[in-house]
Amino acid sequence: MTPITEVEGRRLTLSNLDKALYTASASASGFTKGEMLHYYASTAEALLAHLRNRPVSFLRFPDGPDGQRFFAKNVPPGTPDWVQTADVPRSDGNSRQILVNDLPTLMWAANLVTEFHTPQWQADAPALADRLVLDLDPGDPATIVECCRAGLWLRERLQADGLDVYAKTSGSKGLHLLCHLEPTPSEQVTAYAKELAKEAEAALPDLVVHRMTRSLRPRKVFVDFSQNAAAKTTATPYTLRARQEPTVSTPVTWEEVEGVKERGDPADLVFLAADIAPRLQRHGDLLAPLTDPDQARPLPRKPRKPRP
């Protein structure tokens, strides 16, 4: 029998709660769909702060990370009428996407087995970015250790331009750097981020590459600035990822980033679903300033030239 539950007055049908999604999990039964739903419910306050008012794209993996995966942007068939949606401009015409603004919607969406991905702008201001993101992606055999080295350099450069910088793991292999901006056209943010990436490559030629060309990326960190484009999305803080284990895109302290750079152990920045509640208890939401309008900073016209 399919369980029906009530969440803040909304009736939800939850399915296949005993289904093992992450079979590589340490648990004998794997990490089940029921455990996934419990994870999203227990981290809802922090997660919803970063989902709120942002059109969501879903990476669905209903049979676990080893099964079929598909990316979904449009409102899926059968969406309850109480789920909020928003018009999203696209090059081929407007579409409608889900807004995950409350706990019932979060649990409904999580029941579809999803990663959550969001743009750097909000639904009522399309293509006006209030976040800058740099996605640091290591090319084998480089790891997140090299991302930490590059991230610390980029942090100093962004701080020199008057921006506050926060970090989270991608939940996969890399590191994301984020800054809270006063609303700025996405193309301007992308251009600024590209200049920073090029400057990082010039300063750290043995470590950083700013172009996506696969042949350039082995042993280096690709600084992906393109996720600032209005049409692009990034893994939302606290989302589970479709990996072999239930890894989470996790906010981290700069002390943790420094520690990994010094110790050289990538495992120190791997966080599973079970790690997040204790971290939230200990640190709170390390990315909370990204949701506080008073913490927004203006985007510089262009990166300042490094000091000689």
TrEMBL record:
The keyword Ligase applies. GO terms for molecular function: ligase activity. InterPro entries: LigD_pol_dom, MtLigD_Pol-like, NHEJ_LigD. Residues 299-308 have a biased composition (Basic residues). This is Non-homologous end-joining DNA ligase. It comes from the Bacteria. Transmembrane segments: none annotated. The keyword Nuclease does not apply. Keywords: Ligase. It comes from Streptomyces rectiviolaceus. The lineage of its organism: Bacteria, Bacillati, Actinomycetota, Actinomycetes, Kitasatosporales. Residues 285-308 are annotated as: Disordered. Residues 32-286 form the DNA ligase D polymerase domain. Pfam families: LigD_Prim-Pol (PF21686).
